[in-house]
Design a protein that fits this description.
Elements: H1 11-15, E1 21-25, H2 31-38, H3 42-45, E2 48-52, H4 59-73, H5 77-89, H6 120-134
Parallel strand pairs: 1-2
Helix pairs in contact: 4-5, 4-6
């Protein structure tokens, strides 16, 4: 999960231990990731596979798109907040499936992100969209802190 720019992953050391390394990320456009792999020998590069894959099976993308729709369709900040709280209340962790990982099953996994970090990134994006539309911070509507606004 989350190869990122791969600076924290000792690729050369892992190549000494494993036949193949899969670097998986939802977005493999990172120039620094390519630079990390490019510095390897040609033989080592053949054993490293860059894989673009959303290991949440689209759950984070669906959450983000649905939240964007709620914000866009809401006439007031309060209406948007209620919709977002309802959306987050309906999250089912089983939506984050690993059934579709295909040949990525492996004997050893190193993650530069933990599962608990999967929601904060879309949460930040959602809060930014809310502020752009309503010119108010999501967690400080009418000066009151929403208990459920830790979206």
């Amino acid at each position: 999960m989350g190869a990122g720019d791969c600076k924290e992953i000792p690729i050369e050391e892992f190549l000494g231990l494993f036949d193949r390394i899969n670097l998986v990320d939802v977005d493999v456009d990172e120039e620094s990731l390519y630079r990390q792999v490019a510095r390897l020998s040609p033989e080592q590069q053949q054993r490293v596979q860059l894989v673009v894959k959303d290991l949440t099976a689209g759950a984070v993308l669906t959450l983000t798109e649905t939240a964007a729709d709620i914000i866009e369709q809401a006439a007031t900040p309060g209406q948007a907040c209620r919709g977002l709280v309802e959306l987050y209340g309906a999250i089912d962790i089983s939506d984050f499936s690993t059934d579709d990982i295909g040949d990525l099953r492996s004997g050893y996994v190193v993650s530069s992100v933990v599962a608990s970090q999967l929601l904060p990134f879309p949460e930040l994006w959602i809060a930014q969209r809310f502020e752009e539309k309503f010119r108010r911070k999501l967690n400080d509507l009418n000066g009151e802190k929403y208990a459920a606004a830790k979206l």
